[in-house]
Design brief:
Protein name: Large ribosomal subunit protein uL30
Family: Belongs to the universal ribosomal protein uL30 family.
Number of strands: 3
InterPro entries: Ribo_uL30_ferredoxin-like_sf, Ribosomal_uL30_bac-type, Ribosomal_uL30_ferredoxin-like
Oligomer: single chain
Helix content: 25-40%
Shape: globular
Radius of gyration: 11 Å
Subunit structure: Part of the 50S ribosomal subunit.
GO molecular function, one term: structural constituent of ribosome
Number of domains: 1
CATH architecture: 2-Layer Sandwich
CATH topology: Ribosomal Protein L30, Chain: A
Amino acid sequence: MTTANTLTIKLVRSPIGCRADHRATVRGLGLRKINSVSVLQDTPAVRGMINKISYLLQVI
């Protein structure tokens, strides 16, 4: 993986109390606990997932 084609995301808010599909999106991005970090390929699907739950995430 090259750094130009990756996104690093961090879970900064808890998905507790969020909609079930938003919790599933958090899990789909590979995030479990608050402050967990995931490095993912920069694809349109991943960008859509990040956009959907942007209020829970920080893109580093």
